[in-house]
Amino acid sequence: MLKELQIPDDFYITSDTWFGRPQILEIANRKFNNVDEMNATLIKNWNKVVKKNDIVFHLGNFAWDPQTARRVLKKLKGQIYFMVGSSDEAFLDIIHEFENISILEDQILELPQFDSIISHYPLEVWNGKDSGTLHFHGHTVYSHKTDLSKMNRINACTDFWNYTPVNYLTIKDFINE
């Protein structure tokens, strides 16, 4: 499926949005008054940067329940490619209803044209690690903060990016500087 996809020169990436999950406010220490405020902010931030035809990779743990997943997906812009996370059963129930949604079959996916690898879980070792290949991951909303002085591993969890999908070129420019 991805081999057929023509990714433009740029894409967005995010993870662990956990739309509709009340417990995530405490687990990830999210500073929202309630889950409705969190959902509204994440949707607003997403649509502020992502345009209709932009590519977005979501690295797992999208929503807590099918009703929330459905409501949110109706509002989000972009062509969204999902890597199934550790708790995406609710999401999988409704994806067939959306034309702008695709599931990535691989749990570790190389994007050679971007010198990057994506996965739901953080990796210690990946193809190209020693030659500068970037590794984007999710799953760790309260740990594995990005520290480029240690390795080229970027935590894409929304919590570390102001609850907004991060732009690949922004990351690449930051690293190159």
Largest sheet: 5 strands, mixed
Number of helices: 5
- Give the spatial strand order of the biggest sheet: 4-3-2-1-9
Radius of gyration: 15 Å
Give the mean pLDDT. Answer: 89
Order of helices and strands: EHHEHEHEEEEEEH
Overall shape:
globular
Q: How far from one another are the termini?
A: 34 Å
Which structural category fits the helices and strands? alpha/beta
**Unreliable stretches, pLDDT < 50, 5 or more residues?**
none
Residue share in helix: 10-25%
Q: Summed up, what is this model?
A:
The chain has helices at 24-27, 35-49, 66-73, 89-92, 168-176, and strands spanning 12-14, 55-58, 79-83, 101-104, 108-111, 116-119, 134-137, 153-155, 166-167. The chain is an alpha/beta fold and 177 residues long.
What features would you highlight for this structure?
177 residues; 5-stranded mixed sheet; 19% strand; 4-stranded mixed sheet; single chain; alpha/beta; 9 strands
Explain the overall architecture.
The chain is globular. The protein contains five helices and nine strands, in the order E-H-H-E-H-E-H-E-E-E-E-E-E-H. It has helices at residues 24-27, 35-49, 66-73, 89-92, 168-176, and strands at 12-14, 55-58, 79-83, 101-104, 108-111, 116-119, 134-137, 153-155, 166-167. It starts with 11 loop residues before the first strand and ends with a helix. It is of the alpha/beta class. 23% of the residues lie in helices and 19% in strands. The strands form two sheets. A five-stranded mixed β-sheet has the order 4-3-2-1-9.
Can you lay out the helices and strands and say which pair or pack?
Blueprint: E1 12-14, H1 24-27, H2 35-49, E2 55-58, H3 66-73, E3 79-83, H4 89-92, E4 101-104, E5 108-111, E6 116-119, E7 134-137, E8 153-155, E9 166-167, H5 168-176
Parallel strand pairs: 1-2, 2-3, 3-4, 6-7, 7-8
Antiparallel strand pairs: 1-9, 5-6
